[in-house]
Write a structure and sequence with these properties.
Strand content: 25-35%
Order of helices and strands: EEEEEEHEEHEHE
CATH architecture: 3-Layer(aba) Sandwich
CATH superfamily: MTH938-like
Number of domains: 1
Shape: globular
Number of helices: 3
Strand order of the largest sheet: 5-4-10-7-9
Helix content: 10-25%
Distance between the termini: 24 Å
Length: 114
């Protein structure tokens, strides 16, 4: 998967436009990604991601970085040997593409608004 572009509330992946938070797997998109606590990323919100066993998880925290990654989520990823890159979404989508271009097994989880 390749992310073509991002602007507030809109992400274009492989030519398709998405207007809700999403998870980008190498072979599919999980649309309408909701988190239990909205602007806090918890381990429970990573449904399917941990099972996929990526090398790296790129998290887009929103355009202003409002979504936070909980300490327990950071620890769970570390325990499974998954590198975490968490940045504002306007930077995170580019970092995701870089990871994919480097041949890494990457997943991106993106908050598209605030």
């Amino acid at each position: 998967m390749h992310i073509d572009s991002y602007s507030f509330g809109i992400m274009k992946v492989d030519g398709n436009e998405y207007r809700s938070d999403l998870i980008v797997f190498p072979d599919k998109i999980k649309q309408n990604w909701w988190r239990m606590q909205g602007h806090n990323l918890a381990v429970e919100d990573l449904d399917g991601i941990l099972d996929f066993e990526p090398e790296v998880l790129v998290v887009g925290k929103g355009i202003s970085g409002l979504m936070q990654v909980s300490a327990s989520t950071i620890e769970a990823l570390r325990e499974q040997g998954i590198e975490l890159i968490a940045e504002n979404t306007d930077r995170a989508w580019q970092l995701f593409n870089e990871q994919v271009q480097q041949g890494r097994k990457a997943i991106g989880a993106f908050h598209l608004t605030c």
